Amino acid sequence: MTHYDIHSIRADFPILKTKVNGYPLVYLDNGATTQKPQSVINAITDYYTQINSNVHRGVHHLSQLATDAYEVTRRKLSEFINAAQDYEVILTNGTTHSINLVAHCYGKQFVKEGDEIIISAMEHHSNIVPWQMLCEEQGAKLRVVPINDEGELDMGAYHAMLNERVKLVSITYVSNTLGTLNPIKEITKLAHDHGIPVLVDGAQAIQHLHVDVQALDVDFFAFSGHKMYGPTGVGVLYGKEKWLDQMPPYQGGGDMIKEVRFEKTIYNELPFKFEAGTPNIEAGICLGAAVDYIKTIGLSQIALYETELLKYATKALSEIDQIRFIGTAKEKSSVISFLVNGAHPYDVGVILDKLGIAVRTGHHCTQPLMERFGIPGTVRASIAMYNTKEEIDLLVSAVKRAASMLL
Ligand code: PMP
């Protein structure tokens, strides 16, 4: 921890100086979106003041600069996740877009009537609904890996579900509601033993853990820029070349073509085949700045710091009598969900907000998971690299206060 200078990290995020209702902001809603460092904010201004232009189209100076900057981001992202090739990194609008792209393009090509898709009981709606839509369209079946009361995947049940009808496994790396860290390497190995590709929803992992798509051997990996200190409106779909090559394009339009004739269109090569139309150029370039920022701090340092903070927060909150944790897996990352027994999560959230503390309350886009636990929702505190023990202490005393007011 010696190199982790929390004061200078916090100073890089101007919004953290905000006061809410006269209290210093304690931002613990990082699972929803993270705050942005000044370098990312500056990158937006720099883009519009220096190189604003459309990419991949013009021969003129500004267009070259914008194209180079945009493609540098792809390079940085590719290196960040250790993709074998830069063209395996498709720039999308975010995780939701990335998963829908695979459901649509892979699904159209490979999923037929009677086939099966496996997801888990802890998936975000964006890793449920696209597969439901696909299954409905193709006459396929959605199968759901159950979880235990701690919020861990039932790996025995998963293993038993794998058979020749299964055409894809799509599972989250870290649960946005429970914080459970799933054994992706094992999940992938088991699926591959049956020749089944695996998509990993990395929305809650990419900012907390070192992701190496080749070491994990995943076939697809999806994540969002805005959850990793970058801007909204940009994200990534990593896909192995062998799958991307066999998939038809997602949308038709400019950039995704090599040649258009009324009789026939020849599609562009990877990654452009999946990137129709003008992309979110400034967001793409700024995501490169976010990757630079994370690398300056160091993901292993961030992971160490956040793990310690998560332990500290779990212990401190567990000392409140009325607390009930939802999600007590052995392997967890960055998220604590809880209920203050008898109180509605929304009411707790409102009191915390009055005290300057930003948490999320509700079902967190995981309604089937809430049903599994028989609850309407949770209070969720999700941490990021800039949170502190002092902020956790403020959270704990605010939860105590909420408990005394509501119970
Ligand atoms: N999956 C998980 C696990 C998430 O936490 C989220 C965002 N809450 C998403 C998918 C969807 O991400 P986005 O809204 O950025 O597309």
TrEMBL record:
<dbReference type="GO" id="GO:0008483">
    <property type="term" value="F:transaminase activity"/>
</dbReference>
<comment type="function">
    <text>Catalyzes the removal of elemental sulfur and selenium atoms from L-cysteine, L-cystine, L-selenocysteine, and L-selenocystine to produce L-alanine.</text>
</comment>
<dbReference type="InterPro" id="IPR016454">
    <property type="entry name" value="Cysteine_dSase"/>
</dbReference>
<dbReference type="InterPro" id="IPR020578">
    <property type="entry name" value="Aminotrans_V_PyrdxlP_BS"/>
</dbReference>
<protein>
    <recommendedName>
        <fullName>Cysteine desulfurase</fullName>
        <ecNumber>2.8.1.7</ecNumber>
    </recommendedName>
</protein>
<dbReference type="InterPro" id="IPR000192">
    <property type="entry name" value="Aminotrans_V_dom"/>
</dbReference>
<comment type="similarity">
    <text>Belongs to the class-V pyridoxal-phosphate-dependent aminotransferase family. Csd subfamily.</text>
</comment>
<keyword id="KW-0032">Aminotransferase</keyword>
<keyword id="KW-0808">Transferase</keyword>
<dbReference type="InterPro" id="IPR015422">
    <property type="entry name" value="PyrdxlP-dep_Trfase_small"/>
</dbReference>
<keyword id="KW-0663">Pyridoxal phosphate</keyword>
<dbReference type="InterPro" id="IPR010970">
    <property type="entry name" value="Cys_dSase_SufS"/>
</dbReference>
<dbReference type="Pfam" id="PF00266">
    <property type="entry name" value="Aminotran_5"/>
</dbReference>
<dbReference type="InterPro" id="IPR015424">
    <property type="entry name" value="PyrdxlP-dep_Trfase"/>
</dbReference>
<feature type="domain" description="Aminotransferase class V">
    <location>
        <begin position="26"/>
        <end position="395"/>
    </location>
</feature>
<dbReference type="InterPro" id="IPR015421">
    <property type="entry name" value="PyrdxlP-dep_Trfase_major"/>
</dbReference>
